Amino acid sequence: MFDFIRKHTRMTMILLFVLIVPSFVLFGIDGYTRNREHAAAVAKVDGVDITQTEWDAAHRVEVERLRASMPSLDARLLDSPEARYATLERLVRDRVLAAAATKAHLVTSDARLARDLQQNPTIATLRRPDGTLDMQQYRELVGRQGMTPEMFEARVRTDLSTRQVLESVGATGFATPAQADVTLNAFFEQREVQVVRFNTAEYSARVNPSDAEIEAFYKDNAALFQAPEQASIEYLVLDADALRNSVTVNPDDLKTYYEQNVARLSGQEERRASHILINAPASAPAADRQMAKARAEELLAAVRKAPGTFAEVAKKNSQDTGSAPNGGDLDFFARGAMVKPFEDTAFALKKGDISDVVETDFGYHIIQLTDIKAPRQRSFEEMKAEIEADVKKQQAQRKFAESAEAFSNGVFEQSDSLKPVAERLKLQIRTATGVTRQPAPGVTGVLGNAKFLNALFAPDSIEKKRNTEAVETASSQLVSGRVTQYSPAHTRPLAEVREQVLARLRAQKGAELARKEGAEKLAAWKGNAAAASLPTAVTVSRVDIKGQPVKIVDAALRLDATQLPGWTGVDLGADGYAVVRVNKVVPRDAATAESAQQDRRQYTQWWSAAESLAYYDLLRERFKAQIVVARPVASLDAGGAATR
Hints:
The protein is an alpha+beta fold.
């Protein structure tokens, strides 16, 4: 192939020109960039890739959901590598369960979907005092998640279907009282212990290392005394919210907008209806559906003769268990709330009318329209502020959309400076110093965004001082930055960190001395318990550790109960050492009948959850689920604490 290219260079160039140039004309260079990003697989389920773009989008939705539910939550936690990886794991889990639901032909009916939406507590807050749903607020709610109501409802339908996958296993979990009691008795078991601590701090004070030891420790642990890489940067932010503040609206335009949208802005007409349903799913045999239709025709004839008996007939005969007890009453609803054949009929009736038999996927309905609620048309003055905010929002979004491409292309095409883009779009160039690869404590906004920081500290940005690509750091927000000065990570001089080195060395040596003396005491006391000087005994358990470290409690509970009283030593790591004498087993406190029953129920839930998890692991294998990006690993910070 390569020989052909070398021998036919001119032909090859013409072919490439014909194939590639038109596609650049149609899609632009950044289209190729986006396609390449879309193709970057981060996981795979059932042979289908999950791309970086899908991962980013899922994490944005997750972040918005968490911010809405917990406004005080530290934004840095939401965009940490661990949080992003957790989103990817949830995305993989959703895909695995969706694949399992599809293979098992699990579906969610319209009735089940409607019932779930009615029970949703968030949607419930959007109901007006009269119980009807504020559709405008509903659209805004799902719109903040980047979805239309139809997309949101499709996602809920999928969630309900996939939920059946694990529920089919979890709902069957059970444990006999005997099984539960054996485990619970072991879990709640108590032991009487006497603990002697050999604390690092007491031994560290005895350590006086020489200069040579300090220098050797410094050299052997240079990574602990590093100054992180830092950069001074300048950056631009294109933000729809900021653009909204710069938008001015002509009063005449507001009046025109009001006149064109007054019907929509005033709200939708709502109708109240009652119905009688004879169940006949679309999947039912034709003969069964015909019998259901015939029954509906009989009931229609009855209520046509005596319209006043509609509620009584519905109570006795309707197979809609939700509305039948209320005489078939469905309360008020707007367009879009019911399946189309039902909705079309209800909105074509006059108040008091009874429909013909209406066929839907649920079966056959007889509908009686009981009330009509027409929206009150509000005046222009009443709605002026609302309209102005709406128009400004629309114009800002339009302006952002128009500017986003210019912003993205500009920072790429003139990559040695942000000034041309700033001047063209009238944006302010901002600066920051001491920026690090990991967000600094307390930093929020774009400088706390891990994705933007990763772009800033990419090799091309650091070495060539080029603009970063346009990075989406929030909904309708793009950022680009460039490094103006860079200081690589370096080991700080010994003179600068001598006190830290000394403190760490003393702690290390102190822990070693504590372990040594603790082990010696353990050996001596095992041989001669009378020589031991022990504190007052305490009774510990997994649910009441009496202020003891968990390691000590675990070691005491693991000691063979047939060998008591007995001794064990516990290495507490940086905290030193402990010698533990376990005197005896203390039986679990007697539980009341009600408490014991509650504990058994809790145990059954644990058991069911374990079975569900095991089944999910089996599904992961069956659908060959694989995450191809590395899990964030633990590291040591400058203070020696474990971080992720």
